Amino acid sequence: MFKVESATPRKLCVHMLASLENIDQADSAVSGFLIERKVPVDRFAVRIMLREALLNAVTHGSGGDSRLPVRLDVELGKSGVALAIEDTGEGFIWQDRDVSFDVLGDGGRGLALMQIYSSEMTFNESGNRVALRRNYDVPAVCHEGSSGD
Amino acid sequence: MLQTEQLDEMLVVKPDGDIVASALESFRKELQGLIEQGHVNLAIDLDGVGIIDSKGLAIFMLCHKSLTAKGGRLVVLTGNEDFKQLFHVMRMDEHFTVAGAL
Predict the structure, then answer these.
(1) Contacts of residue A110 in chain B, CB cutoff 8 Å?
(2) Which of A81, A148, B55, B83 meets the CB 3.0–4.6 Å disulfide criterion with A100?
(3) What's the alpha-carbon Rg for chain A, to the nearest Å?
(4) Residue A100 has pLDDT above 50, yes or no
(5) A107 and B58 in contact by Cβ < 8 A?
(6) Does domain B3-99 correspond to CATH entry 3.30.750.24?
């Protein structure tokens, strides 16, 4: 199931089941939404943020169970594009999150990518909803020196 | 199937599509197959790729480690500034070459 619930001039709402293929569909839907509206934002950055947040929701929040729902909200705000991704999982202790990564490792890059490519990243209390914002007309990301290897 | 082309000592590999979680398994297996066939110097050409996610980046690092363990090397070919920046911010360009051409 992949359903665009509403697409107003400034908002897009997607209800989807937690599958990897639906991440691709969501990416296409959001890219199309931004292109149609000629939104002056780094679309590559938005795609990276979106994909990593959905990947976390599908693989961690939903535990890979493709029967579980994931909700995506996109809003064109005054300062930038806002994404909110929510799954039905228990969340995680985001206060202890570690965005450092092992450059030679096999995983652990998702949170770092979300942090680097977003202008702001916040979680709800339980950690099963992440809100990301990418400000308009922000230059390409700089090397922000995550550590950990 | 991955398109391949031998250029001097490098085998250039051309993925046709995004390198993301939903499409990784076949990409990983095909790269692994090439390495098992004895190709230790691989250049992955990103000309036909639109996006790479964290799972895709992990494949590049796995490939790099497999090749260097066999005395070879990985090169990523791209003229796309977004990709160059992606490999840079993830500090992967400190471990293998990311360049516009061989």
Answers:
(1) 54
(2) A148
(3) 15
(4) yes
(5) yes
(6) yes
